[in-house]
Structure formats: C-alpha cells, structure tokens
Amino acid sequence: MTQTITPQDFQRLCQSGQDVELIDVRTPVEFQEMHVEIAKNVPLDRLDPQRLQQERTTGEAPLYVICRSGGRGKQACEKFQAAGVTNVINVEGGTMACAAAGMSMVRGKKAVSLERQVRIAAGSLVFVGSALGYFVHPYFIGLPAFVGAGLVFAGVTDTCGMGMMLARMPWNQVASPGGSCALPK
C-alpha cells in the first residue's frame, strides 16, 4: 500500500525546517513548466530506485514523490517498494494540489501535459481509424479497436503505454548541461 501525505501536511513539513527530499517524476518539459521549489526531476521512465536510494542525501528519512496529479507518483512509489525501498511517500493530488495549497512554486514556459497529449493522440487515432474504416477499407476499424483496448488496459493496470512512449518524444525533453536526470548530490 502506497503511503500518502496531503499537500497541506507536506507544506507544514517543508516549513518546519527539516531536510525534505522530493522527486518529481513528470517529464522534463512538464517539470520545467511548473514544479514545487524543492523538487528534483527524475522522470518515471528513467527511475532507477536502487541507484536513487544510494545517491540520497537524507539517508533513511522518507523520500517524497510527486507528479502532476498523483497517478505517476503512485507508480513511482510502487517501483520503489518493489525494489525494497519502503520509506517513500506520495504527495496526494500532485503538483496541482500543492499549487492550490499555496506552496512555493517555480514557474517556467507553458507546456502540454502528458495526460493531455495522450488524449489528443488517442482521439486522433480513433478518428482517423474510423474515417479510414468507413471510406477506405473496413479493416481500418482495427485501429480504433486497438486504441480502445489500450485505454481499457491502461485503466485496469494504471499504466499507459502510449503515455510512456510520448514521454520519450523529443518535445517532452529539455536540454540539460550534464545530460542526466538523476538526483544531484
């Protein structure tokens, strides 16, 4: 079971003066758009729980995980737990809830969220497949059926293959001087 913390409790914890380590598992572009001031970007598709645990600066203190709204943060926590790291806590509601709670945020250039990109891509594939099935050949109906099956799978397993592929696209990357998205020492 994934442990969680409310944005309000997390804000109080940050203001208490304790060392708090927070990783944001969104894509670099999403992170660049807006993130909690103390967050470090470690995208979910590049998350290596064992290596990250070895590089941590706060030892055995809890590691807090955040994403846009909570889903990817939960997946990251499950990855940590599967690797034997149990002191991870997901921030409920993600970055959006922290912003609404009044936490200190870093804001940059606007970007299209990964969730929105998935909706655009899935809707486009369904529309094109349906049109091709009607106007060109009925076999093209397989495309919207495949997308629909993928969406059902994503809903049941809480993992999204299309989202993982889109996260690796060039428009979801940012140039970094060191080329690494690992947690800095």
Automatic annotation (TrEMBL):
Keyword Transmembrane helix: yes
The keyword Protease belongs to this UniProt entry's keyword annotation: no
Segments crossing the lipid bilayer: 118-137, 143-167
Keywords: Membrane, Transmembrane, Transmembrane helix
Rhodanese domain mapped to chain residues: 16-107
SMART domains: RHOD (SM00450)
PANTHER family listed in its UniProt record: RHODANESE-LIKE DOMAIN-CONTAINING PROTEIN 15, CHLOROPLASTIC
Name of the protein this chain belongs to: Inner membrane protein YgaP
Organism from which the protein derives: Anatilimnocola aggregata
